[in-house]
Specification:
This protein has about 250 residues and is of the alpha/beta class. It has a single domain, classed as Alpha-Beta Barrel (TIM Barrel). The protein is built from 10 helices and 8 strands.
């Protein structure tokens, strides 16, 4: 089955807590085709956890109205040549649908955070904790997909006891159209996720240059994303050039 390509160039800017807003996304142009804003804590348990993170000197978005913040940031990106997305954290699926409705109204992607490993957030049942409870994670995806949003899930490898390709299959069946995989130091798992699902797979972790880009694309990833260096124009330029070159070579190969 041929996959839809939701953005081009096939480089995304991955969310950075407390930094990834509309201004940050605009600054990444023209080197990215997508930008994941957030992460944003949606409900009181995750907002309280975010406050604890701020107390130990981490950057976090803590607007008075998280849903209003999402609406405002996405409105600021209206008309820009990129696919906007919002990475969200929630202790239950209840608040996911409200955020997803806003994303759908802006033709944006709602990304469920099943990735964060900060203990304060994991204690609320969000972040990587969700990978150990795939049935609950499916409900998050379904809550967003039911209201018409395109759903992404941010995943991570190297969590003991988690069969990530099996989780990916379940998320695909639940309605996730994008799987955003932080490969950690287990890059071959990206290929396993690609083989397990029809979702569009974005590979993340240490994407910096031609070598890292081509490694992930050779493993079957449909796109790559840049995390911490997403504020560095030189890195974004290198990554886009390497990505464009890889897909051009694929297009012209016999």
């Amino acid at each position: 089955m041929s996959k839809a390509v939701p953005f081009s160039p096939r480089v995304a800017a991955a969310s950075l807590s407390g930094q990834s807003d509309a201004t940050w996304a605009n600054d990444a142009l023209p080197h990215v085709g997508a930008a994941f804003l957030g992460g944003i804590a949606l409900d009181e348990p995750t907002r309280n956890a975010a406050r604890e993170l701020v107390d130990r000197d981490r950057d976090e978005f803590l607007p008075d109205d998280p849903i209003g913040w999402i609406d405002e940031q996405l409105a600021a990106l209206a008309g820009e040549p990129l696919l906007p997305a919002v990475n969200v954290r929630a202790a239950s699926p209840d608040s996911i649908a409200d955020a997803a409705k806003i994303c759908a109204a802006h033709d944006a992607v709602l990304e469920v955070n099943a990735h964060c490993r900060q203990p304060e957030l994991c204690a609320t049942g969000t972040g990587q904790t969700l990978l150990r409870e795939p049935e609950r994670l499916e409900r998050y995806v379904e809550a967003a997909a039911t209201v018409g949003a395109t759903v992404s899930v941010k995943l991570r490898t190297e969590l003991p006891g988690v069969d990530l390709p099996a989780v990916a299959r379940r998320l695909d069946a639940a309605g996730a159209r994008i799987l955003h995989v932080d490969a950690m130091d287990s890059e071959p798992v990206v290929a396993d996720v690609v083989d397990a699902t029809d979702a569009f797979v974005i590979a993340n972790n240490e994407v910096r240059d031609r070598e890292s880009v081509h490694e992930y694309l050779d493993l079957g990833a449909d796109a790559v994303s840049v995390g911490r260096p997403s504020t560095e124009q030189a890195v974004l330029q290198r990554v886009r050039a390497a990505t464009d070159a890889w897909f051009e070579a694929e297009r012209v190969s016999p």
